[in-house]
Amino acid sequence: MADISPVGGISSLSSLGAFSTSLAQSLVEDYARNELPSESTSRILDAFLNHLPLDSSAVVAEDIISKKDSLKELADHYVSSLLIPLRAGSGKTPKAISTRSGMGLEDVDDIAAEITPQRRDQTKVKADCLARDGNCCLITGAYDIKVALRTFSAAERKNITTVATEAAHIMPFSLAAFGEHDRQSKAIIWEGIYHMFPGIQNYSPDDINDPRNVLTLYPMLHAEFGKFTMCLEPTATPNRYHIKKYDNFPSFYEHGLPSDGFVTFTAHDGRYPLPDPKLLSVHAAIGAVLHASGMTENIERILSDFNELRCLAPNGSTEIGMMMLIAF
Hints:
Strand order of the largest sheet: 5-6-7
Order of helices and strands: HHHHHHEHHEEHEHEEEHHH
Radius of gyration: 21 Å
Distance between the termini: 52 Å
Structural class: mainly alpha
Strand content: 5-15%
Number of helices: 13
Helix content: 40-55%
Number of strands: 7
């Protein structure tokens, strides 16, 4: 009789996953042997396959195996529906014109019908998160200057490190800002996120301003967090994170960071939940892929070109999809 015990089942699933990953890796390596020097397909797919959490890596392996005859299109889809939109932050985002070959477009249509555009409510979001975070930057611990001016005397402020702070979204606000003309494009992006990260399928644009998706940060750290030069990697200890810095993180900003490289979040107001480790894990995973794939500079150039060309268009809607795809 076959072994159907839980241990045997888990072992079989683990072996199947390892086989799929190995097969997918071989397919990427085979593609790389005949890849044009100007292409980045194999580097992109290799980064997704080897620098994501196990459940997401398994999704990538299945995609590679099922799309083995259209790997460039798959890599294009990953870039246009994941890397570019998540890196674009609060700015305008090029349309996600590339769909995953064989994607169930009914899923995209369902998402498009359900998603609702959100308004940027920074005043309320910041006030709620400041209350939760004890009026401090979550990473440096420095006190918000505006609150300090209202709360402490000049003599008391001499003993307090103060900074300006901002409400920093983990999943960019731009994912929830859209009109009817780009609803379908945003639905493709959300489908790509749900497909790659099944653990956050309960999140939607409706949750973009939820405190679980927002950090109180010093503006310079907010900017670097959005550019993925810095990420917060969840640890085994709840609400404790490793501050991952990449080579392009400005050394000047390191002075205010914890010396041990870790930070622990504490809720000072129980009405507002702490940042969700699942969302921070997604941010950290995308950061790892961006750097491992070598796509950071390409995407910076794509976004810069997009913003410049958009300014030239009368309605601000210049289509640069072909430029985006040609770039890699």
